[in-house]
Amino acid sequence: MSIDVHSRFREVREVARGDQEHVEIPIPFAIRAAALAASRWCVLAHNHPSGDPAPSDADVRLWHQAAKQFACAGLRLLDHLVIARGAFYSCAWQSHWTIR
Predict the structure, then answer these.
(1) pTM of the full structure
(2) 20 pLDDT higher than 70
(3) Are β-strands 41-47 and 2-3 bridged in parallel, bridged antiparallel, or unpaired?
(4) What is the torsional sign of CA 81, 26, 15, 71?
(5) pLDDT tens digit string along 33-59?
(6) What is the per-residue pLDDT for 83?
(7) Structurally, how many domains does the chain consist of?
(8) What is the DSSP pairing of strand 41-47 with strand 9-11?
(9) Is the pLDDT of residue 16 over 70?
């Protein structure tokens, strides 16, 4: 998701598609999508079909690696959301949220 200087969503792009067990998010593709949208701020998001929004160790590693790579490209990664049925987890806030 790309966000403009007025904190409005500019664009949502799919940069990877996985299967029931795994998705590999190519960070350079996400950076390119943000650059094409002329965005300076971004949010990564993916779903957990299991229904549990708790991030895996790989999700947390991705958050830290992506934040560094986005910064090197002059972009800011605001958050990485893990979305599940009726809930999501924010890596930036390190919190689980329920959607009603």
Answers:
(1) 0.83
(2) no
(3) antiparallel
(4) positive
(5) 888 888 888 899 988 988 999 999 999
(6) 92
(7) 1
(8) unpaired
(9) yes
Rounded to whole angstroms, the Cα distance separating 38 from 41 reads 9
Q: How many CB atoms lie within 10 A of CB 67?
A: 20
- CATH code: domain of residue 59: 3.40.140.10
CA distances from 8 to 27, 54, 76 (A): 22, 27, 15
> 1: pLDDT confidence band, cut at 50, 70 and 90?
low
Tokens of 4: 């403009």
Cα distance between residue 40 and residue 26, in whole Å: 18
Q: Where are the beta strands (DSSP E) in 1-100?
A: 2-3, 9-11, 41-47, 76-84, 87-90, 95-98
What range defines the domain where residue 77 resides?
Answer: 2-15+24-98
Q: Which residues pair with 41 in a beta bridge?
A: 3, 76
Q: Are 41 and 3 in contact (CB under 8 A)?
A: yes
